[in-house]
Amino acid sequence: MGSPKLPVLLLPHPLILLPTARVTLPISRSLADAILSLLDDSDAVLAAIPLPAPDSPSEVTYGTAARIARLVRPRNQSSPTQPYLLSLHGIQRIRFPTPIQIDRSETLPVHNVVYPSSEGIPSRDTVEAFKHAALLLLDRLAKDSPQPQRKDDWLRVAAIVEDISEQRAAWMADVLVAAVSSQYPDKLAFLAATDVEDRLRRATELFIKQSSIQEVSKKIASAVDESFSRQQKEYFLRQQLAAIQRELQSLQSSPASVGTGFGTGGATSELDDDDQADADDLADLRRKIEALDVGSEERKVGIREWRRLKRIPQGSVENGVIRSYLEWLTSVPWPSNQTTTPLDVLKDHSFLTRARAQLDADHYGLGQIKRRLMEYLAIVRLRAIADAAQTQAQGNNPSTDTFPGATPTPPTKSKGVKGPILLFVGPPGTGKTSLGQSIAKALGRPFQRISLGGVRDEAEIRGHRRTYVASGPGSIVQALRKAGRNDPVILLDEVDKVGHSNFHGDPAAALLEVLDPEQNHSFNDHYINVPIDLSQVLFICTSNTIDTISAPLLDRCEVVELSGYTYDEKMHIAKRFLLPKQICANGLSDSQLTLTDDALLHVATMYTREAGVRSLERAIGAVVRFKAVEWAEWLDKGNGTMGGEGNAKQNENGNEKQDGNANENGVRKEWRATVEPHELEKILGIPRWDGEERDREEKRGVVYGLVVTGMGEGGILPVESTALPGTGRLKLTGSLGDVIKESGEIALSWVKTHAFELGITAGRGVDPLKVPDVIDVHLHLPAGAQKKDGPSAGIAMICAFVSLLSGACVPKDIAMTGEITLRGRVTPVGGIRMKVLGAHRAQIRKVILPWANRKDVEHDVALEVRREMQFFFVRTIDEALEAAFGRGALGWRKETVLLESRL
């Protein structure tokens, strides 16, 4: 076969086209016309030869047969400067029989070419060396690639190289050499390698060389970037330092300004953050670490973190994190700090007397709580005295059984008395929170309050772990740091409103360790991560109800109920605390305002009927403000002076009056400082509870039961019943729950069973709802918007049914509570103290209670309340009906034995 001829196209330097590769280059219009004519006359294949370097010989021996892939015309064909774009795809190596001279003219000269033989299989060693070098280079390119897509492409090519066969190794060498960026002489030598073996060896050498170049380039770039960053940072800091020094010199040379703080000569301001202040802080931190007990866990952790702090540069973020941790660690009152109550205070014989006087001065009543606290204080005092005596005895009588060289046994530390976990449960306004402050005063300890209402993250109790950004200790550790002692009084307020389990954790479960006397000696905060002793802390929890508190948490607390105040207690509280507080807060004096006992009682009974005293304080505040306005207007009219206190006197009725100057008409006006009950309606408006008291009357089918509201307040609730034509059914309304509905059905069933004995029907076995007339019974409990449930309304429902069907009425001053059974028994119920106090506030004089609740009345109800009320304790429904309607009011039929004849 003759030697073929191909048109020759010169590639601009340093462009080289290898087989399997594709290249795009701009060409002139004349070359584009020649290529277009070539496309019309032949199969669009030409010889692409590289243009030699300017300093190299101008003869070319090797090239590449390339197929024309695409020729793109310019958008503006009329522009002579805009080039065409030619895309070529390499097919095979070619060799010229004789070297050709480079013709730089815009033509396509035709020359004879020879296609070297590409047949032959390289040796296995050559192929393995090629693969190893190629995989090494591809791995380096994948690691150094900043683009994920490019990295994935190199890894896919590496997978192809691993599985390439020996026959396809030469083809893969062309692909890889064309893809990697290498030097021009290396690529030109690779193009001239027509033998397969030689081509693979050249490719292997080129890959090894390129891998070394990539590795060295990476190291150099990294070193240069690091050096440049360090130099740039040093230059920036030095410029800042020079600017600061210039400012300090200018301030020192200028005359001193008057005063300190911002805008003055900076050296006198306590906000200056100089090196000396920072060094003092670090020195203080070191002294605190050294003051910790030798061998203790907190000291070991503090020393380890201090060493880490000294190794880390001061400007780094980690330095600030460790320093904050050490500040928290050293601020916690550890047992080595000796922060408990001094022994001389406990040894004082008047310690318990002063503590009792402090509790009595701050709160009126609450005898049960005061008794429990005095028990705790007495035990603390006796335990401290006993430990001091034991220590003194050990010092006076040292052990003689020691041998030379033995290590003396250190004296054992007294663990002290474990603080009780008290849970105050009661309605709002009964003094639960303020009682905690009084306890702290009586004990001589710091007081800290932690509000748990709405807490739903466990980390707020236990703290955040140090791995989180802006982490910190929990509220328990924060309270200890503020207190500065390891035996403070910590009040956990609103523990019943803490959040339940969610994706943030369970805060209630985190409180189990805090409030467990057997576990809280080693409480673990996630941030501090060192066991903290909480056994000396007196925890006081407050709650409005125990229904929402988990059973394990409730089991760890001593429940103390604050059911509410009687009217007598409210009178004492108002005169001793509330009225003086409001007079002082509104700018008056004791001589300028006086509320009589009748006025205070009228406010408590007619305006603020509640378990606590918050509404009472607001009402007293309204009265004081009203009188303050009158006093200010009286002064503005020229009737007196602002001092005014020395001019007060009493008139013949005992009321205080204030002498003043004569007014415009010469008539002297007197200031009336006393507030009487009849003036309260003008100040506070119409009484809220007056209407209810007047509407309560004896009526058929209506009785009054005792209830406890959701906030723990007691009260009375009328139970109304009426008869209407129907089919003999029972209808219950008033937002009733399932349990109270069952109580209504039980009550009606018992009345039907005993209708003959009660005188309701004329014979046994007769349904009173169907004879003589067929009727329905409708039972209603008012205040339908409030949910009602529980079994304690059984007695009231039976009395209402008996009153409705028999016509007898229950007196309006009688209220009752108790659960019933079908056998006619009356079983005990809960909330007796709240119910009795609610009845007392509603001016109920007789109360019917189950016999089993007699101990609750004697133990929980105040003596003055029991003296003003009459209690009936019943075991059966018969006794309850006799107590409610009176002896002989129902006309019971005696039981008679009936014999049925069988003759």
Structure write-up:
With 903 residues, this protein is α/β, with parallel strands linked by helices. The chain is 42% helix and 16% strand. It has 28 helices and 27 strands. It has a seven-stranded mixed sheet. Strands 2-5-4-3-1-6 form a six-stranded mixed sheet. The protein has a five-stranded parallel sheet with strand order 8-9-12-7-13, with helices on both faces. α2 (124-144) packs parallel to α6, α4 runs parallel beside α6 (196-253) and α11 (351-362) packs antiparallel against α12 (367-396). The longest helix has 58 residues, at 196-253. The protein is elongated. The termini are far apart. 31% of the residues are buried.
Residue share in β-strands: 15-25%
Query: How far is it from the N-terminal to the C-terminal residue, by CA?
Result: 146 Å
Kindly name the structural category: alpha/beta
Low-pLDDT stretches are 256-267, 399-413, 643-664
Helix content: 40-55%
Shape: elongated
Q: Can you summarize the main beta sheet?
A: 7 strands, mixed
- Mean pLDDT, as a whole number? 79
Count of alpha and pi helical runs: 28
Number of strands: 27
- Rg over CA atoms, rounded to whole Å, is 50 Å
Strand order of the largest sheet: 21-22-20-19-23-26-27
Secondary-structure topology with pairs:
Blueprint: E1 5-11, E2 22-27, H1 29-41, E3 45-50, E4 59-72, E5 84-101, E6 110-112, H2 124-144, H3 148-162, H4 169-179, H5 184-192, H6 196-253, H7 275-290, H8 297-311, H9 317-331, H10 343-347, H11 351-362, H12 367-396, E7 421-425, H13 432-443, E8 447-451, H14 459-462, H15 475-483, E9 489-493, H16 507-514, E10 523-524, E11 531-532, E12 538-543, H17 551-555, E13 558-561, H18 567-585, E14 594-595, H19 597-606, H20 614-636, E15 648-650, E16 656-658, E17 671-672, E18 674-675, H21 680-684, H22 690-695, E19 702-708, E20 714-725, E21 730-733, H23 738-753, E22 775-780, H24 794-806, E23 814-816, E24 819-820, E25 826-827, H25 832-841, E26 846-850, H26 854-860, H27 863-868, E27 870-874, H28 877-885
Parallel strand pairs: 1-3, 7-12, 7-13, 8-9, 9-12, 14-18, 19-23, 21-22, 23-26, 26-27
Antiparallel strand pairs: 1-6, 2-5, 3-4, 4-5, 10-11, 15-16, 16-17, 19-20, 20-22, 24-25
Helix pairs in contact: 2-3, 2-6, 4-6, 5-6, 8-9, 11-12, 11-13, 18-19, 18-20, 23-24
